[in-house]
Amino acid sequence: MVELTGRTVRRLRWLVPALIMIGWLAIGGFGGPFAGKLSDVSENDNSAFLPASAEATEVQRLQERFTRNEAVPTIVVAERAGGVTPADRAFLQERAADAASIEGVVQPLSPVIPSRDGKALQLVVPMTGEPNEAVEELRGLLDRDRPDGLDVYAAGPAGQIADLSEAFGGIDGMLLLVAGSVVAVILIIVYRSPLLPFLVLLSGIFALGLASLTVYLLADSGTLALNGQSQGILFILVFGAATDYALLLVSRFREELRDTEDRYVAIRKALRGTIEPIAASAGTVILGVLCLLFSDLNSNRGLGPVAAIGIGASLLASVTFLPAVLAIFGRAAFWPFRPLHGSPHPEGKGVWGRIAGLVDRKPRAIWAVTALVLLAGAAFVPQLKADGTSQTDVFLTEVDSVAGQEVLSRHFPGGVGSPAIVIANAQQTDAVLEATRVDGVSSAEPAGTRDGLVLIEAVLDAPADSERAVGIVQSLRDSVRAVEDADAKVGGRTAVQLDTQETSKRDRMVIIPIVLVVVLAVLALLLRSLLAPLLLVATVVLSFAATMGVSALVFNHVLGFPGADPAVPLFGFVFLVALGIDYNIFLMTRVREEARTRGTREGTRYGLTVTGGVITSAGVVLAATFAALAVLPILFLAQIAFIVAFGVLLDTLIVRSLLVPALTIDIGKKVWWPSALSR
After folding, report:
1. Cβ-contact 55, 477 below 8 angstroms
2. Which residues share a beta bridge with 489?
3. Tell me: the pLDDT tens digits for 19-45?
4. Burial of 147 by CB count in 10 Å (0-12 exposed, 13-18 middle, 19+ buried)?
5. CA distance 68 to 82
6. Adjacent-strand bridge partners of 450
7. Do the beta carbons of residue 519 and residue 578 sit within 8 Å?
8. Which residues in 435-549 belong to E strands, given as ranges?
9. How far apart are CA 659 and CA 366, in angstroms?
10. Dihedral sign (CA 319, 325, 330, 333)
11. I need a surface site. Which of 59, 70, 86, 366 has the fewest CB within 10 A?
C-alpha cells in the first residue's frame, strides 16, 4: 500500500505539471490569433475619447440635429509651383465624380476651389464610418493619371485617421517581432542556455494570447475602449512583466537546485520564496494602472483595465505554466551550465558582492551622492513641454495628411474644411455672429437653424490641429459665452483637441496622488512597515522627477520633438512608479526575509548580493521591451518608450542598487518601524 502510494505520488509529480502545460498550450492556440485581431476593435479617433460633459462632445451631440450623418471630411489639395492649369482643375473634377462612388463617401462633395494665389486647388470629400478604406481608395484614384508636376494629397481629419490606423497597423507583427527578439537575445546572454530563454518566451506568448483574447472580447462588446496606443502598451507590458517574473522565479529555482537534489522540491521552494514578491509586484502594477479609471478621458480609462488584464495574464502564466515546465525539465533547462546539487552559489562573488560591500562600508556617502545626482536631473523638469502638440506633429515620418496640411496652410485659410462649430439660441444669431469676430477667425457664417438653435461655422486662419488654433478657439469660447441668453457652445475638431488637453491636465492632478496612496498602501501591507514604504515611494518619485528632467533635455535638444501631449507625464508616472517600485519590492522582500535571521545590515548586504544580477537583468529586459515601442512612428509612443526605458534603468541601476540599500543600512532596523523587526 505504501509502495502504491509512493508510485502514485511520483506519477502526480509529473502528471500535474504536464496537464498544466497542455492547458496553456490550448489557451495559447486559441487565444494567440486574437493578438492580430485587436486592430479590428480599436478606435483611434480622439473625439470618441472625450467625456460626455466636455463642451466639444455636447456640440457634437447637438450637431446631429442639423445633419443626418456624422461625416468626417477628407480635404484633397493639389499644388503646382508654377500655378495650376485648366487641365489640373479638370483632373480634380473628374476624380471628384469618381470619388462619389466610393463606399463611405457622402454626397454632395464640395466644388473644386482654387486658392487666391492660383497655385493650389481644394476639394472636400465627406466620409462616414471608419474612413480608412475609403481614404486609401481615394488616394489610389488621385494617383491614377495624375498630371506631371501636380502634387495631390488627401489630408484633413479623415486623412489623419487613416494615417494613424496605418501607423498602428505594424503593432501586430513588427512590434511583437522586435520585442520578442530583444528579450530572446538578453535571455540568452543572461542564462547562456538555448532552452531556458525559449521556455520564458513561451510563458510571455501564452500570457499575451490570454490577455489578447480577454481584451478582444471586452472591446468587441463595448465594455472597454481600445486604441492603438493601448494595444501597443499591452504587448510590451505582457512581454516585459512575464519576463521579469520569470527571471525572479528562475533565479530562485537555480539557487534551490544547488541546495536540493529533488527538482520538484526545488521548484516548490522557489515558488514559495518568490510568489509573494511576484504577486505584490503584479498587484501594485494592476492597482496602479487601474487608477487610470479615475480619468475623464475614455482612452485613459480604457488603458487601465487593458494593462491590468495584461499584467494579470503575465502573473498567471508565471506562477503556473513556468513552474510546470521547470519542474518537468529540471536541471536540463539550464543546459549546458546545469546547477549541480552541492555546488557553490556564484551570486556571492563578482560585481554584486563588491557593490554590496561598498554600500555596506559607506552608506551615507553613497545615498547622499546618488540623491544629489537625481536632484540634478530633476532640476530640468520645468523645461518639459507637455502642453500639447498639433495633430500633424503626432507622426514621426512623412505621411500624406501632414504634407497635405502644409500645402493647405500655404495657400488657404488654415481652418478651411475643419471649421469651429458654434451652436447657440437662434434668437441671438446676430449677437453671436458679432462675438465670433475675434483675432484668428477669418470668417463666420450661419449654416442652418433647427429646433430654436443656430449652427455657425467659423473658419480659423490657422490649421485646425495647431496650437494657435487651440488658442483661437479658447478666445472664441470666451467671446460667445459672454452673449446674454445665447447659451453658445463651441465645438469642432480644434475644440476636441482643446478639451482633450484640458482633461489630460485635470487627470494629472487627480490620478497621480491616488497612485501614490495605492502604492504606499500595498508596500505597507507587504513589508509590515510604514517607514520603509515611505522611503521607497520617495525614492521612486525622485527617480521619476530625474527621468522627466533628462527626458526634457533629450526631447528638446537631442531629438528636436515639438512638445508632448499632456498625458505623457501622467502615463510616465503611472508606469514608472508602478513598475519602478517592482524592483524595490523584489529587493526589500528578500532583505526583510534575510533580516529576520541576519539582522538588517547584513540582510541588506546579502539581499543586494543575491538579487543584484536577476533584478538588473529584469530591468534591462523591461527597458528594452518598452524601447521597442519606438519602432512605431508615433510621437506619443516614442516619448513613452524613452521615458519608461530610461526610468526603469535609472531605478534598476541607481535607485535599487545604491540609494535604497544605502538608506536602509544607514537607518538600520528602525526602517521596519513599527513592526517587530524595528525593535
Report:
1. yes
2. 423
3. 888 888 888 888 878 877 877 777 655
4. middle
5. 41
6. 453
7. yes
8. 441-450, 453-460, 489-491
9. 7
10. negative
11. 86
Contact 184, 201 (CB under 8 A): yes
CA distance 325 to 264: 11
* Tens-digit pLDDT profile for residues 590-619: 888 888 888 888 888 988 888 888 888 888
Are 578 and 321 within 8 A, CB to CB? no
CA distance 638 to 572: 12
CB atoms closer than 10 angstroms to residue 265: 15
End-to-end distance of the chain based on CA atoms, in angstroms?
A: 52
Whether the Cβ atoms of residue 209 and residue 27 lie closer than 8 Å to each other: yes
Give the per-residue pLDDT at 636: 84
- Reduced to 3 states (helix: H, G, I; strand: E, B; else coil), residue 397 is coil
- Across all residues in the chain, what is the average pLDDT? 85
User: In the structure grid, which three cell numbers stand for residue 509, read together?
Assistant: 492632478
CA distances to 275, 305, 320, 509, 636 from 570, in Å: 30, 16, 33, 9, 12
Q: Mind giving me the DSSP string for 52-98?
A: TTSHHHHHHHHHTTT-SS--EEEEEEEE-TT---HHHHHHHHHHHHH
- Chain-centre distance for alpha carbon 451: 43
- pLDDT score of 552 more than 90: yes
C-alpha cell at 310: 495584461
Going by the DSSP 8-state scheme, the letter that residue 340 receives in this structure is -
Q: What is the number of other CB atoms lying within 10 angstroms of the CB of residue 505?
A: 16
Nearest in space to 244 (alpha carbons), one of 198, 189, 311: 311
Which candidate, 602, 612, 134, 63, places its Cα nearest to that of 352?
612
Question: What SS3 state is found at 664?
Answer: helix
CA separation for the pair 401, 398 (Å, rounded): 9
Residues 512 and 436: their CA atoms lie apart, in Å, by: 38
Sorted by sequence, the CB contacts under 8 Å of residue 41 that are 6+ apart come out as: 216, 219, 220, 226
Evaluated on CA atoms 396, 397, 400, 402, the torsion sign reads positive
Ordered strands of the 453-460 beta sheet: 441-450, 453-460, 420-425, 489-491
Contact of 301 with 290, CB cutoff 8 Å: no
Contact 80, 149 (CB under 8 A): yes
How many CB atoms are closer than 10 A to CB 571? 23
- CA dist., res. 76 & res. 452, Å (int): 34
- R_g (Cα) of the chain, nearest Å: 29
Cβ(503)–Cβ(296) below 8 Å:
yes
pLDDT of 6 above 70: no
d(CA 396, CA 442): 30
Position 585 scores a pLDDT of 82
Residue 35: all three cell numbers together: 493578438
Peptide bond into 336 cis (omega under 30): yes
- 575: confidence class by pLDDT, cuts 50, 70, 90: confident
The span from the CA of 160 to the CA of 156, in Å, is: 6
For residue 105, the 8-state DSSP code is B
Q: What is the pLDDT of residue 522?
A: 86
- Is residue 436 within 8 A of residue 479, CB to CB? The reply is yes
